[in-house]
Amino acid sequence: MTTSGLSDRELHQQQMSKMEVGHSFFLEGVLPSDCAYIRKLGYKLGFRLSIRYVAVDEIFGKHGTRVKRIG
Length: 71
Known about the structure:
It is a single chain. It is built from two helices and three strands, in the order αβαββ. The protein starts with 7 loop residues before the first helix and ends with a strand. It has a domain at 22-69. It has helices spanning 8-17, 36-45, and strands spanning 24-28, 49-54, 64-69. The chain has a three-stranded antiparallel β-sheet, with no helix packed on it. By secondary structure, it is of the alpha+beta class.
């Protein structure tokens, strides 16, 4: 439970629902196969997501997974 009274999942859903097409976020050191929860949340919200492993992220310069809303 967060300080706002929302569960973590509710908070994640609320934050992800504000993503616009073209926006993305980075998960350092995480493989796409570990992102099932994010993929399911995207489906629930009706979003199309691109979930890609990157060896060197364009912003942070580290390896991990970039999740981008594409539709």
